[in-house]
Design a protein that fits this description.
By secondary structure, this protein is α/β, with parallel strands linked by helices. 20% of the residues lie in helices and 20% in strands. The longest helix is centred in the first third of the chain and has 14 residues.
């Protein structure tokens, strides 16, 4: 059997992408990139054992990351309602539609709409893709009996060790980031690469490589980046550009300190507003003949 990613995915009816505990930005960007590349052709879910924080909000499709591992079963709970107050539960089929009836005991009010809570449980996946991580403790879900027969696939920048001795296929390779590895695998597998996928992976590479300063950055990194940008990827900086008003008053020559076209100098004198010198932003070269 050919152990490439496309072969393993093609043989699966459903795919579960697992992020590690306490995911880095790069992990989430890589997982979402793969999720978006597979969602048109496969039943795919992406899950994280820990909640997504505000730092991930600029990633496209972040709302698709769920803490629920699967949606095999629908679970209905009654919050703050005593189970002992329920007499019985019945169901019937009416006009082809399923109807569930909860019958409370005499003189007891039924649960309100606000007390009804819906969730899903039960993992149903033929293939589990684990993103990044260093060991099995980062992916507690893979020890679930429901995943005993699932193929385990690992994607990262270094190989992983599973304490349970579960068999798995690793596509780990040296790179600047996990997002770079995922981008390469998407290209090799022939999966679609639209502007949203490219944007997520581009942001993941920038974050994972510390803005291309990491020692794992190579010529291949910049080749992947150029391909992502050609696919419509956008470089969305984590911080907004620094504006003139972000500096303290008087820090920039020519910046007004007060209204009405006047500015106050550091010495407290008022003078007409003037433009910054033309060479203010140019590099300065200092020459000297002696030190000290």
């Amino acid at each position: 059997m050919e152990n490439n990613l496309k072969t393993l995915i093609d043989q699966s009816q459903s795919v579960l992408i697992l992020l590690p505990t306490k995911s880095y930005f790069d992990h989430v960007a890589a997982g979402l990139g793969l999720y978006m590349a597979l969602r048109e052709s496969k039943d795919v879910r992406i899950s994280s054992p820990t909640p997504m924080t505000v730092e991930f909000n600029r990633l496209i499709g972040i709302n698709k990351v769920s803490e629920d591992l699967g949606n095999k079963n629908l679970v209905i709970r009654f919050v703050d309602y005593k189970a002992s107050d329920i007499e019985r539960v019945s169901y019937d089929i009416e006009d082809g539609q399923f109807r569930l009836t909860v019958i409370p005991k005499i003189k007891v009010t039924p649960p309100t709409k606000d007390q009804v809570q819906f969730s899903y449980s039960g993992i149903s996946a033929d293939c589990v893709v684990i993103i990044g991580g260093e060991g099995e403790t980062h992916f507690p879900a893979i020890t679930s009996p429901e995943l005993a027969r699932a193929n385990i696939v690992h994607i990262g920048t270094r190989d992983i060790s599973l304490a349970s001795n579960k068999s798995y296929v690793s596509f780990a390779r040296p790179a600047s980031s996990v997002s770079e590895v995922v981008a390469s695998l998407i290209k090799e597998s022939g999966y679609p690469l639209d502007n949203d996928i490219a944007t997520n992976l581009l942001m993941g590479i920038e974050e994972g490589s510390k803005n291309f300063s990491d020692e794992g950055v190579s010529a291949q990194t910049f080749l992947i980046v150029s391909e992502l940008m050609r696919a419509g990827g956008r470089r969305l900086s984590a911080q907004s550009p620094v504006q003139k008003q972000d500096f303290p008053l008087g820090a920039i020559p020519g910046m007004p300190v007060s209204v009405s076209g006047m500015q106050r100098t550091p010495k407290g004198k008022v003078q007409d507003e003037e433009a910054a010198p033309s060479d203010w932003l140019e590099p300065k070269i200092y020459k000297g003949t002696s030190v000290g």
